[in-house]
Amino acid sequence: MINNFEHIPVMLNEVLSDLNIKPDGLYIDCTLGGGGHSEKILEKLSSNGTLIGIDKDNDALEFTTQRLSSKYANFKSFHTDFKQVNEVVDYLNIYGQIDGVLLDLGVSSHQIDTADRGFSFRFDGPLDMRMDKSQKLTAYDVVNTYSYEQLCKILWEYGEEDFAKSIAKNIIKAREVEPIKTTKQLSQIVESSMPAKIVFRRGGADKKTFQAIRIEVNGELENLYETIIFLAKNLKKGGRIAIITFHSLEDRIVKNAFKELSTDCICPPKIPKCICNHRAVGKLVNRKPILASQQEQEQNSRSTCAKLRILERI
Q1: Which site in 80, 188, 280, 286 is 20 to 30 Å from 120, CA atoms measured?
Q2: Average confidence (pLDDT) over 280-308
Q3: Rg (CA), the chain
Q4: Where are the alpha helices (DSSP H) in the chain?
Q5: Following DSSP, what letter does each residue of 172-216 receive, concatenated?
Q6: CB of 309 within 8 A of CB of 288?
C-alpha cells in the first residue's frame, strides 16, 4: 500500500464542463488513478448521485479508494481493467442507466516517476511496465523472449518507430550475451541503434520504444474500440462519454468508434442503397478534439499531447 499518489489530472475543467454532470447522476471513472477527476465529480454530486471508480493498478486503487471513501459515501471502486467494465455493469445491473463515463488513457505520473515500475527511460529500474502487478507478462519478457519479427512489429505498430528493425536487431544481439534486465540497459540499446543526430534531435530517443513495449505489456489497444461502443450504448439519453488520449494510435481508435456511434449508415460507399440498418446512438459534442490550454501545457507537460473527445447519447 503506497502512502502517496500524486497525479495532476489533465484538462480537469474541460472534463467537468463537458460531462455536463447531474447532481443525482451515475458516473463511471474507468481509469481512477489518483482520483483527481473523480474527486471533483464527487463534489458536484448529491447524496443520491454515485461515482464508480475502476483501475487495474492496485496501488492507485487502494490509495484512492481509501482517500475518497473516507469523504464520500456514494463512491464505489473495482479492481479491474476498464476493458472489463461490462462485468462491473452486469454486477451492478446498471445497463442503460449511466449518466457519464470518463476514460483517461494516459500513464499516471506516479507510474512514470516510480523507478521500480519500469515505465520510464528517465529512471533506471527493472523492466516491468505492468499496470496490474498481478499479471504475468512484463517488459522483461517482451524484450528477452519475443522474436525479431515480433519486436519489429510492436515497435513499428505501437511506437511508430522508424528505427524498429535496427532496435530489434540490437536487442536480439545484446540479449544473446546476457539478459536485458533494466530500463537503462534498454535505453542504451535504443540510442545506439540510431544516428547520434536523431538521438540529439528527439531528446527522448527511447520514448517510442518504451511506449510500444508498454502498450504490448498492458494490452492497451486490445478491445478498446468494443469497450467504447459498449459504454456509449449504456448511457442514458443525454449522457456523455469523455475520453482523453495521449498518442495517435489511441486517438484514431476513439475517433473511429465515435464516428460509428454518430453515423446512421455505415455501408461501404460503393453500395447504392443502405443494407446495414445501422442507426446513430450518439452525437459528437465537438467535431475536433479539445486540446489543453497553453497555460496548462506550460504547467503540466503531460497535457501537451492530450486530446479530449466527447460523445452524447441521443
Answers
A1: 80
A2: 95
A3: 21
A4: 12-18, 36-44, 58-69, 85-92, 109-113, 139-145, 148-157, 164-177, 183-191, 196-202, 207-218, 224-233, 248-261, 294-299
A5: HHHHHHS---BHHHHHHHHHTTS-HHHHHHHSSTTHHHHHHHHHH
A6: no
pTM of the model: 0.90
Report how far apart, in Å, the C-alpha atoms of 150 and of each of 44, 95, 145, 206, 216 are: 47, 39, 10, 18, 11
Could you give the CA distance from residue 36 to residue 28 in angstroms, rounded to a whole number? 14
Handedness of CA 183, 184, 185, 190 (dihedral sign): positive
- For residue 249, the SS3 value is helix
Q: What is the pLDDT of residues 158-209, one digit of tens each?
A: 999 999 999 999 999 999 999 999 999 999 999 999 998 888 888 777 889 9
Residue carrying the nine cell digits 448511457: 235
Element of type H or E holding 54:
strand 50-55
pLDDT, tens digit (0-9, with 9 covering 90-100), for 17-76: 999 999 999 999 999 999 999 999 999 999 999 999 999 998 889 999 999 999 999 999
Which amino acid, 167? Answer: I
Q: Is 235 helix (H, G, I), strand (E, B) or coil?
A: strand
